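Final report, closing paragraph on structural work. Over the funding period we assembled a curated collection of sequence-structure pairs, and we close with a single example.
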Amino acid sequence: MNWHGKRYYSFDSFLKNTFGEKIYKVSLDGGFTCPNRDGTLGTNGCIFCSQGGSGDFASDASLSVHEQITQGISLLSKKAEISGYIAYFQAFTNTYGPIDKLRKLFTEAIDDERIVALAIGTRPDCLPPKVLDLLEELNRKKPVFVELGLQTIHEKTADFIRRGYPLSCFEQAVFDLAKRKILTVVHLILGLPGETDDMMLDSVRYLNKLPVHGIKLSMLHVLKYTDLADFYNKEPFHIFEMDEYVQLVLKCIVNLRKDMVIHRLTGDGPKDLLIAPKWSLHKRKVLNEIAHQLKVNNLHQGDLL
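Its predicted structure, as stored:
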């Protein structure tokens, strides 16, 4: 397990170890919705979710998958020398639809010779047996990552953010995916209203016990036109300063088992929608500070385990 000189097992290191070359994600929009928006569970989505369904940086859903991949690659190839790409279905719930639609979209992506793997963002309550069987079939062709938005293990917070499913549902999905050798990536949000540092660290430690491949950490973003923005304007709650967030991330890293791949340590909401925290727009600065503090304090992933 080569960390390539870092003090934690980054997704970049995992990709280099797996593919031996530089790999980037291409964000795609499959034109999906969400049971938290179409009336099945609710109509307004999770309290923090934008109108883009967490896919604000994805391509145009009116384009075919092939066209979206080509468009995304043309933008990325201007920035760096890239050897391969991961097709990332990001916006809304990407397994919430007819199985024929899922098969068509995912197959078009995974069969593209430029694509080395598939990443699918979804909900644990949207993984019925037929979908799991399809993902297992695709995983035999190329690696498939399934990203689940857990955000927190605490049910009171989950109710507040309108997550819409219990922790037991998440656990079942993780084990169902693991049985099929599909790599699961879990999203956690740091800074949800009412949560202490210890509560957030409990969410991190909880994942150590499960067959989870990777984790994505992000600070809470308050975005315009969301119910969270309305709540924040009426009842302002504490938003992390950058140094607070960095210190909490250090605690998360040392509490993660060493083989857990860290896919993300920060997030950056759309500039035109972001109300707070504004410092999160400077993603490189945040990552550099995390790396600096790890070095200064001689910390490594898993040190406290």
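The longest strand covers residues 115-122. The chain has a mean pLDDT of 93. We thank the funder for supporting this effort.
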